[in-house]
Amino acid sequence: MEFPEGKDYQQEAFRYPLNSNINAWRPPRDTKLCLPEKLLNKNSISFLPPKKVKDYHVWLIFTKVTERSPLRYKFHNLLENILNISTVSLKFHIIVDNSSKYLATNEISDVVSHSNKPIYYKFYDVEICAKAIEDIVEVLTPHFSSKPGTYYSDALFFISLGLYRIAPVSQTRAVLLDCDLYFKQDIRLLFEEFSRFKTTALYGLAPELTPVYKHVLQIYKSKHNSTFGEYYHLKNITSHMPHPKGFQGYNSGVVLINLSAIRNSKEYSVIIKNETVTSLTAKYKFRGHLGDQDFYTLLGFEYPHLIQTLHCGFNRQLCVWWRDHGYRDVFNFYFKCKHPTVILHGNCNTKIPK
């Protein structure tokens, strides 16, 4: 949900005592509050400020969904999972199209009825979002999209890079999540990573756990001695490069976004211009197909001060497609993750072990 400008809704925490009356409070304009049935039957409601004021904004994309679409079930399962494991009050911001909005509303209501926990959310029209970032999409699509499609479907691959324009200016930070995730631990741990950001960081991402960028960069690497696309080593494999231990690239299934820093970054506004992107892709002979993830990977190698690397447990990917398509000999070097798992990522439709 989005909160109107000028009012500090960070101060409102919601508790539902047994003697509460839900009608005692009216949500502000644009706020949608989906409450469990048992709360709707109580007599009163009270609002107490949290001990520590924080914003927990979660962004999701839910578009081109049909009644039997796998995304519908992934969306449902993710919401249910997050509500059940979270110890903090979250605000969901969901990008939808007209046909998917109805299905999203139904899924939210169903999750609330089963979890007995309220959800605060707001929908954002995908076409309006696409319009807000059309210049970014125009620059990036030729380099990082395998099959450029319709106007807004292209934009979906780059939402995270322009979210600072879409999110209300009152939002200073946010996380954008794929729907094929499962939280093994509290989502609060993910938000706490913001406190570990270096002062220059705009985004936070965990490593890509496959050799996809070793593959994408094979032309460049055939002519240059570079750690770009190499798996992470325990010790330095070079002494004169920015990434001496290797650089696998990033995966954008989980993205931490420092919105206020991006809005104030003159460097970022230059980097997303056509001249810079064209120069970068030409330098590394880079032709990607994974949208924003490709750009983050280039950004992380060329401008490492702008990306905060999260440990692999914050995005423990499960896809093994590249193991079976030419990289079996090195796959496990990329796929390993020795950190405790916070989030499982069932990418490429991989079943998530619960």
TrEMBL record:
Cellular component GO terms, alphabetical: endoplasmic reticulum membrane
Entry-linked InterPro entries: Nucleotide-diphossugar_trans, XXLT1
GO molecular function list: xylosyl alpha-1,3-xylosyltransferase activity
GO terms of biological process kind: protein O-linked glycosylation via N-acetyl-galactosamine
Protein's name in the database: Xyloside xylosyltransferase 1
Organism in which the protein naturally occurs: Zophobas morio
